[in-house]
């Protein structure tokens, strides 16, 4: 008597077995202006500037190979500091230096503005995410370049 091996199929959860490999890079950009009302994520001012930043910055990053998305983390007072993350496919992501150079050439050329605010030259740089900002990303599906 010959028996066939038993095979089982894992239930389909709608998610692939491995998380997507991505690279998350954090940057800050400084705008000339006042940060009034930008400390409250629910304010009209915050939501308006958030959308204006996404509309203006997405095409800048989209030119870079492997670009997936951009998320605004928040605004800091002083001149307006726009903290944001840019997510790339880790297999195709350019280096931090390549990203900084490409973006600085566009946003610091003197004519780039977001929502009527001009960009301060010399104030675009990488930043380290805080634990709160990492938690704010809130995507269990996100996997840094070191995951397998």
Tag the structure with descriptive keywords:
single chain, 148 residues, alpha+beta, globular, disordered C terminus
Description:
It is a single chain. This protein has 148 residues and is an alpha+beta fold. The protein is 26% helix and 27% strand. The protein has three helices and seven strands; from the N terminus they run βαββαβββαβ. It has helices at 44-62, 96-107, 131-137, and strands at residues 20-31, 67-76, 80-89, 113-114, 117-118, 125-126, 142-143. The strands form two sheets. Strands 1, 2, 3, 6 and 7 form a five-stranded mixed β-sheet that branches. Strands 4-5 form a two-stranded antiparallel sheet. The longest helix has 19 residues, at 44-62. It is globular and about 40 Å long.
């Amino acid at each position: 008597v010959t028996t066939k091996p038993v095979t089982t199929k894992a239930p389909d959860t709608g998610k692939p077995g491995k998380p997507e490999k991505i690279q998350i890079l954090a940057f800050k950009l400084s705008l000339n202006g006042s940060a009034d009302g930008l400390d409250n994520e629910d304010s009209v001012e915050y939501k308006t500037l958030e959308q204006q930043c996404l509309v203006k910055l997405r095409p800048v990053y989209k030119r870079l190979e492997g670009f997936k998305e951009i998320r605004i983390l928040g605004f800091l007072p002083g001149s307006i500091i726009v903290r944001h993350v840019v997510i790339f496919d880790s297999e195709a992501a350019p280096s931090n230096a390549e990203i900084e150079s490409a973006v600085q050439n566009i946003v610091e050329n003197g004519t780039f503005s977001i929502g009527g605010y001009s960009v301060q030259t010399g104030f675009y740089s990488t930043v380290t995410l805080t634990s709160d900002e990492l938690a704010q990303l809130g995507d269990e599906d996100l996997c840094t370049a070191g995951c397998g």
